[in-house]
Amino acid sequence: MATLLEQLKQYTTVVADTGDMQSMEKFKPTDATTNPSLITAAANMPAYSHIVDEVLKEAKQKAGANADDKAIAAEAFKTLAVAFGKKILEIVPGRVSTEVDARLSYDREKTIAVAHDIIKQYEDAGISRERILIKIASTWEGIKAAEQLEKEGIHCNLTLLFGIHQAIACAEAKVTLISPFVGRILDWYKKDTGKDYVGADDPGVQSVTRIYNYYKKFGYKTQVMGASFRNIGEIIELAGSDLLTISPKLLEELDSKDAPLEKKLDAEKAKAMDIEKISIDQATFEKMHAEDRMAHDKLKEGIEGFSKALEELEALLEKRLKEIAEPVTA
After folding, report:
1. Which position among 9, 62, 110, 135 bears the catalytic label?
2. Are strands 223-226 and 243-246 parallel, antiparallel or unpaired?
Protein backbone atom coordinates (compact mmCIF):
# COMPACT_ATOMS: atom_id res chain seq x y z
CA MET A 1 0.00 0.00 0.00
CA ALA A 2 1.15 3.54 -0.73
CA THR A 3 2.17 5.73 2.19
CA LEU A 4 -0.16 8.43 3.51
CA LEU A 5 2.09 11.06 1.89
CA GLU A 6 1.97 9.35 -1.52
CA GLN A 7 -1.83 9.13 -1.32
CA LEU A 8 -2.16 12.72 -0.12
CA LYS A 9 -0.26 13.93 -3.19
CA GLN A 10 -3.03 12.41 -5.36
CA TYR A 11 -5.67 14.70 -3.80
CA THR A 12 -3.73 17.77 -2.70
CA THR A 13 -0.67 19.82 -3.68
CA VAL A 14 1.88 19.19 -0.93
CA VAL A 15 3.99 22.18 0.10
CA ALA A 16 7.06 22.10 2.37
CA ASP A 17 6.76 24.43 5.36
CA THR A 18 10.47 24.94 6.01
CA GLY A 19 13.60 26.82 5.06
CA ASP A 20 15.60 23.57 5.16
CA MET A 21 16.42 22.60 1.59
CA GLN A 22 17.67 19.14 2.53
CA SER A 23 14.12 18.31 3.69
CA MET A 24 12.72 19.53 0.38
CA GLU A 25 15.10 17.33 -1.57
CA LYS A 26 13.96 14.36 0.52
CA PHE A 27 10.18 14.80 0.36
CA LYS A 28 9.90 16.40 -3.12
CA PRO A 29 7.06 18.90 -2.48
CA THR A 30 5.59 20.91 -5.34
CA ASP A 31 5.94 24.28 -3.60
CA ALA A 32 7.61 25.68 -0.48
CA THR A 33 6.67 28.34 2.06
CA THR A 34 8.89 30.27 4.45
CA ASN A 35 8.27 32.74 7.26
CA PRO A 36 10.58 34.84 9.48
CA SER A 37 10.83 32.09 12.11
CA LEU A 38 11.78 29.47 9.51
CA ILE A 39 14.32 31.75 7.83
CA THR A 40 15.87 32.53 11.22
CA ALA A 41 16.09 28.80 12.00
CA ALA A 42 17.67 28.07 8.61
CA ALA A 43 20.10 30.99 8.97
CA ASN A 44 21.36 29.37 12.18
CA MET A 45 22.17 26.08 10.40
CA PRO A 46 25.84 25.64 9.45
CA ALA A 47 24.74 24.16 6.09
CA TYR A 48 23.39 27.56 5.02
CA SER A 49 26.02 29.87 6.52
CA HIS A 50 27.45 30.55 3.05
CA ILE A 51 24.08 31.98 1.92
CA VAL A 52 23.96 34.27 4.96
CA ASP A 53 27.56 35.39 4.46
CA GLU A 54 27.05 36.16 0.75
CA VAL A 55 24.01 38.31 1.53
CA LEU A 56 25.85 40.16 4.32
CA LYS A 57 28.91 40.86 2.20
CA GLU A 58 26.76 42.21 -0.62
CA ALA A 59 24.75 44.39 1.78
CA LYS A 60 27.95 45.72 3.35
CA GLN A 61 29.36 46.58 -0.07
CA LYS A 62 26.17 48.43 -1.07
CA ALA A 63 25.97 50.30 2.23
CA GLY A 64 29.46 51.73 1.97
CA ALA A 65 32.35 52.01 4.41
CA ASN A 66 30.61 54.37 6.83
CA ALA A 67 27.46 52.28 7.46
CA ASP A 68 27.19 50.62 10.86
CA ASP A 69 26.52 46.91 11.33
CA LYS A 70 22.98 47.47 12.64
CA ALA A 71 21.95 49.36 9.49
CA ILE A 72 23.61 46.78 7.24
CA ALA A 73 21.86 43.91 9.08
CA ALA A 74 18.47 45.66 8.76
CA GLU A 75 19.02 45.95 5.00
CA ALA A 76 20.40 42.42 4.62
CA PHE A 77 17.40 40.64 6.11
CA LYS A 78 15.27 42.01 3.25
CA THR A 79 17.36 40.09 0.74
CA LEU A 80 18.04 36.98 2.83
CA ALA A 81 14.54 35.54 2.37
CA VAL A 82 14.88 36.07 -1.39
CA ALA A 83 18.33 34.42 -1.33
CA PHE A 84 16.77 31.37 0.34
CA GLY A 85 13.85 31.55 -2.08
CA LYS A 86 16.16 31.43 -5.09
CA LYS A 87 17.91 28.33 -3.72
CA ILE A 88 14.55 26.70 -2.92
CA LEU A 89 13.35 27.24 -6.50
CA GLU A 90 16.30 25.18 -7.70
CA ILE A 91 14.70 22.25 -5.84
CA VAL A 92 10.90 22.62 -6.06
CA PRO A 93 9.20 22.67 -9.48
CA GLY A 94 6.49 25.11 -8.38
CA ARG A 95 6.42 28.29 -6.30
CA VAL A 96 8.00 29.73 -3.19
CA SER A 97 6.25 32.07 -0.75
CA THR A 98 8.38 34.99 0.47
CA GLU A 99 7.03 37.08 3.33
CA VAL A 100 6.72 40.85 3.64
CA ASP A 101 8.05 42.34 6.90
CA ALA A 102 5.35 41.55 9.49
CA ARG A 103 5.94 44.96 11.09
CA LEU A 104 4.26 46.48 8.02
CA SER A 105 1.06 44.44 8.43
CA TYR A 106 -1.11 47.55 8.96
CA ASP A 107 0.59 49.70 6.30
CA ARG A 108 -0.89 49.13 2.87
CA GLU A 109 1.48 51.35 0.86
CA LYS A 110 4.69 50.08 2.48
CA THR A 111 3.53 46.48 2.02
CA ILE A 112 3.06 47.15 -1.70
CA ALA A 113 6.50 48.80 -1.93
CA VAL A 114 8.24 45.86 -0.23
CA ALA A 115 6.37 43.40 -2.47
CA HIS A 116 7.59 45.31 -5.54
CA ASP A 117 11.16 45.10 -4.19
CA ILE A 118 10.90 41.33 -3.57
CA ILE A 119 9.56 40.70 -7.08
CA LYS A 120 12.29 42.90 -8.60
CA GLN A 121 14.99 40.91 -6.78
CA TYR A 122 13.61 37.65 -8.17
CA GLU A 123 13.12 39.01 -11.69
CA ASP A 124 16.63 40.50 -11.69
CA ALA A 125 17.83 36.95 -10.99
CA GLY A 126 15.87 35.68 -14.01
CA ILE A 127 13.02 34.14 -11.99
CA SER A 128 9.49 34.73 -13.25
CA ARG A 129 6.94 36.30 -10.90
CA GLU A 130 4.71 33.32 -11.72
CA ARG A 131 6.92 31.25 -9.38
CA ILE A 132 6.63 33.69 -6.48
CA LEU A 133 3.90 34.20 -3.89
CA ILE A 134 4.17 37.36 -1.79
CA LYS A 135 3.18 36.41 1.76
CA ILE A 136 1.17 39.08 3.59
CA ALA A 137 -0.70 39.03 6.93
CA SER A 138 -4.50 38.93 6.60
CA THR A 139 -5.24 42.35 8.09
CA TRP A 140 -7.69 44.55 6.18
CA GLU A 141 -4.74 46.69 5.00
CA GLY A 142 -2.78 43.58 3.97
CA ILE A 143 -5.73 42.23 1.98
CA LYS A 144 -6.21 45.57 0.20
CA ALA A 145 -2.45 45.67 -0.60
CA ALA A 146 -2.75 42.16 -2.06
CA GLU A 147 -5.77 43.22 -4.13
CA GLN A 148 -3.65 45.93 -5.78
CA LEU A 149 -0.68 43.60 -6.28
CA GLU A 150 -2.86 40.94 -7.91
CA LYS A 151 -4.06 43.54 -10.44
CA GLU A 152 -0.37 44.03 -11.33
CA GLY A 153 0.13 40.31 -11.89
CA ILE A 154 1.92 39.80 -8.55
CA HIS A 155 0.48 36.74 -6.82
CA CYS A 156 -0.12 36.76 -3.08
CA ASN A 157 -0.41 34.27 -0.23
CA LEU A 158 -2.44 35.75 2.65
CA THR A 159 -1.15 34.30 5.89
CA LEU A 160 -2.10 34.46 9.59
CA LEU A 161 -5.67 33.73 8.56
CA PHE A 162 -8.03 32.51 11.29
CA GLY A 163 -11.58 33.67 10.55
CA ILE A 164 -14.16 33.30 7.78
CA HIS A 165 -14.32 37.12 7.45
CA GLN A 166 -10.60 37.19 6.54
CA ALA A 167 -11.10 34.35 4.05
CA ILE A 168 -14.08 35.99 2.31
CA ALA A 169 -12.31 39.36 2.10
CA CYS A 170 -9.33 37.61 0.47
CA ALA A 171 -11.54 35.84 -2.06
CA GLU A 172 -13.35 39.08 -2.95
CA ALA A 173 -9.93 40.74 -3.37
CA LYS A 174 -9.06 37.92 -5.82
CA VAL A 175 -5.87 36.90 -4.05
CA THR A 176 -4.19 33.76 -5.37
CA LEU A 177 -3.91 31.80 -2.13
CA ILE A 178 -4.79 31.85 1.57
CA SER A 179 -3.06 30.03 4.44
CA PRO A 180 -5.52 29.34 7.28
CA PHE A 181 -3.58 28.30 10.41
CA VAL A 182 -5.10 25.03 11.58
CA GLY A 183 -2.85 24.30 14.56
CA ARG A 184 -2.91 27.80 15.99
CA ILE A 185 -6.71 27.72 15.98
CA LEU A 186 -6.56 24.40 17.86
CA ASP A 187 -4.09 25.92 20.35
CA TRP A 188 -6.46 28.78 21.13
CA TYR A 189 -9.51 26.55 21.70
CA LYS A 190 -7.58 24.10 23.87
CA LYS A 191 -6.38 26.97 26.06
CA ASP A 192 -9.82 28.66 26.12
CA THR A 193 -11.90 25.57 26.88
CA GLY A 194 -9.42 23.25 28.60
CA LYS A 195 -10.57 20.46 26.25
CA ASP A 196 -8.67 18.41 23.69
CA TYR A 197 -9.94 17.89 20.16
CA VAL A 198 -9.20 15.17 17.62
CA GLY A 199 -10.10 14.40 14.01
CA ALA A 200 -13.10 16.18 12.56
CA ASP A 201 -13.86 17.80 15.94
CA ASP A 202 -10.66 19.87 15.72
CA PRO A 203 -11.74 23.56 15.48
CA GLY A 204 -8.86 24.28 13.06
CA VAL A 205 -10.01 21.48 10.77
CA GLN A 206 -13.59 22.76 10.97
CA SER A 207 -12.49 26.30 10.11
CA VAL A 208 -10.56 25.25 6.99
CA THR A 209 -13.37 22.90 5.92
CA ARG A 210 -15.87 25.76 6.20
CA ILE A 211 -13.64 28.11 4.17
CA TYR A 212 -12.98 25.47 1.50
CA ASN A 213 -16.69 24.67 1.11
CA TYR A 214 -17.57 28.39 0.96
CA TYR A 215 -15.03 29.04 -1.79
CA LYS A 216 -16.11 26.08 -3.89
CA LYS A 217 -19.83 26.78 -3.37
CA PHE A 218 -19.51 30.30 -4.79
CA GLY A 219 -16.85 29.57 -7.40
CA TYR A 220 -14.01 31.68 -6.00
CA LYS A 221 -10.65 31.13 -7.72
CA THR A 222 -8.64 31.78 -4.51
CA GLN A 223 -7.00 28.55 -3.37
CA VAL A 224 -7.00 27.20 0.19
CA MET A 225 -3.71 26.01 1.69
CA GLY A 226 -4.09 24.63 5.21
CA ALA A 227 -1.05 25.49 7.34
CA SER A 228 0.41 25.26 10.86
CA PHE A 229 -0.43 21.65 11.66
CA ARG A 230 0.03 20.10 15.10
CA ASN A 231 -0.47 16.43 14.09
CA ILE A 232 -1.10 14.28 11.03
CA GLY A 233 -4.72 13.75 12.13
CA GLU A 234 -5.45 17.33 11.07
CA ILE A 235 -3.82 16.72 7.69
CA ILE A 236 -5.77 13.50 7.13
CA GLU A 237 -9.05 15.36 7.81
CA LEU A 238 -8.16 17.99 5.18
CA ALA A 239 -7.12 15.64 2.37
CA GLY A 240 -8.56 17.19 -0.78
CA SER A 241 -7.76 20.80 0.14
CA ASP A 242 -6.20 22.69 -2.78
CA LEU A 243 -2.84 22.71 -1.00
CA LEU A 244 -1.42 21.80 2.41
CA THR A 245 1.87 23.19 3.73
CA ILE A 246 3.50 20.69 6.08
CA SER A 247 6.58 20.71 8.31
CA PRO A 248 9.41 18.17 7.69
CA LYS A 249 8.57 16.34 10.94
CA LEU A 250 4.97 15.69 9.85
CA LEU A 251 6.03 14.91 6.26
CA GLU A 252 8.32 12.24 7.73
CA GLU A 253 5.44 10.81 9.75
CA LEU A 254 3.08 10.74 6.76
CA ASP A 255 5.78 9.07 4.67
CA SER A 256 6.33 6.36 7.28
CA LYS A 257 2.71 5.20 7.59
CA ASP A 258 0.83 2.85 5.27
CA ALA A 259 -2.95 3.22 5.70
CA PRO A 260 -5.93 4.06 3.47
CA LEU A 261 -6.47 7.81 3.00
CA GLU A 262 -9.94 9.13 2.20
CA LYS A 263 -10.49 12.38 0.30
CA LYS A 264 -12.40 14.49 2.85
CA LEU A 265 -12.82 17.80 0.98
CA ASP A 266 -14.63 17.72 -2.37
CA ALA A 267 -15.38 20.73 -4.58
CA GLU A 268 -18.35 19.09 -6.30
CA LYS A 269 -20.03 18.21 -3.00
CA ALA A 270 -19.45 21.75 -1.73
CA LYS A 271 -21.35 23.20 -4.70
CA ALA A 272 -24.51 21.40 -3.57
CA MET A 273 -24.31 22.66 0.03
CA ASP A 274 -26.71 25.20 1.51
CA ILE A 275 -24.35 28.04 2.45
CA GLU A 276 -25.24 31.70 3.03
CA LYS A 277 -23.21 34.23 1.02
CA ILE A 278 -21.63 37.08 2.97
CA SER A 279 -20.40 40.34 1.47
CA ILE A 280 -17.43 41.92 3.25
CA ASP A 281 -16.63 45.63 3.33
CA GLN A 282 -14.24 47.22 5.83
CA ALA A 283 -16.92 47.92 8.44
CA THR A 284 -18.23 44.34 8.25
CA PHE A 285 -14.69 42.96 8.39
CA GLU A 286 -13.81 44.99 11.47
CA LYS A 287 -17.09 44.10 13.20
CA MET A 288 -16.68 40.36 12.53
CA HIS A 289 -13.02 40.50 13.55
CA ALA A 290 -13.85 42.19 16.86
CA GLU A 291 -16.55 39.59 17.55
CA ASP A 292 -14.27 36.62 16.73
CA ARG A 293 -12.05 36.47 19.85
CA MET A 294 -9.92 33.65 18.48
CA ALA A 295 -9.17 35.36 15.14
CA HIS A 296 -8.53 38.69 16.89
CA ASP A 297 -6.14 37.14 19.43
CA LYS A 298 -4.25 34.90 17.02
CA LEU A 299 -3.76 37.55 14.31
CA LYS A 300 -2.32 39.96 16.87
CA GLU A 301 -0.15 37.25 18.42
CA GLY A 302 1.05 36.04 14.99
CA ILE A 303 2.11 39.49 13.82
CA GLU A 304 3.93 40.08 17.11
CA GLY A 305 5.63 36.67 16.86
CA PHE A 306 6.84 37.17 13.28
CA SER A 307 7.99 40.71 14.15
CA LYS A 308 10.00 39.34 17.07
CA ALA A 309 11.54 36.68 14.78
CA LEU A 310 12.63 39.44 12.40
CA GLU A 311 14.28 41.33 15.25
CA GLU A 312 16.11 38.14 16.26
CA LEU A 313 17.19 37.62 12.65
CA GLU A 314 18.52 41.18 12.44
CA ALA A 315 20.47 40.62 15.67
CA LEU A 316 21.86 37.35 14.31
CA LEU A 317 22.95 39.08 11.10
CA GLU A 318 24.57 41.92 13.03
CA LYS A 319 26.51 39.38 15.12
CA ARG A 320 27.57 37.48 11.99
CA LEU A 321 28.77 40.69 10.35
CA LYS A 322 31.22 41.22 13.19
CA GLU A 323 32.45 37.62 12.85
CA ILE A 324 33.17 37.84 9.12
CA ALA A 325 34.60 41.36 9.14
CA GLU A 326 38.05 41.45 7.63
CA PRO A 327 40.79 42.68 9.98
CA VAL A 328 41.55 46.37 9.63
CA THR A 329 45.11 47.08 8.42
CA ALA A 330 47.06 50.27 9.01
Report:
1. 135
2. parallel
